[in-house]
Recover the amino acids of this structure.
């Protein structure tokens, strides 16, 4: 049994989960991946299912049209690929608060749009991790200007930021 593109709804995430710059990339990415997986569209954004050549329409009545493929097929017909990639693109783009401001070009494939977003936002996460790590390592106790209590508070704060960044590393790379 195949699934037609008209029977699959495009989810609209709650506003807090829609991409809003670098503020919530991790949450947005997770929601997109789950929505795409549930619809067997994840391989489209990963570039694993590439656009097939357009097949000519049969002109003779004796020639039968190609059989529709399953939604999870790695070799969809051209028309199916176009429809499924459009669904994947829609899931990605309609859940970005300001797609134009982010720099998304909606006329590209879902794989190109996803690659653009991951390149843009995951590099920023790496920068945050570096800054948090540098801050944590450079903070020292100076008894002449800081009380031990203030130093402990500062270290807890810096350590908390560092731990959050390390969680980001684990989420993105493992």
């Amino acid at each position: 049994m195949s699934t037609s593109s008209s029977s699959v709804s495009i989810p609209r995430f709650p506003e807090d989960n829609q991409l809003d710059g670098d503020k919530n990339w991790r949450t947005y990415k997770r929601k997109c991946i789950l929505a795409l997986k549930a619809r067997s569209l994840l391989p489209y954004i990963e570039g694993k299912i590439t656009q097939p050549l357009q097949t000519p329409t049969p002109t003779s009545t004796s020639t039968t049209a190609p059989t529709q493929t399953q939604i999870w097929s790695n070799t969809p017909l051209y028309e199916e690929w176009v429809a499924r990639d459009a669904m994947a693109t829609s899931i990605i783009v309609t859940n970005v608060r300001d797609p134009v401001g982010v720099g998304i070009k909606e006329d590209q494939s879902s794989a190109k749009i996803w690659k653009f977003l991951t390149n843009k936002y995951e590099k920023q996460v790496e920068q945050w991790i570096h800054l948090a790590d540098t801050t944590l390592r450079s903070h020292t106790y100076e008894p002449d200007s800081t009380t031990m209590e203030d130093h402990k508070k500062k270290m807890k704060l810096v350590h908390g930021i560092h731990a959050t960044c390390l969680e980001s590393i684990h989420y993105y790379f493992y």
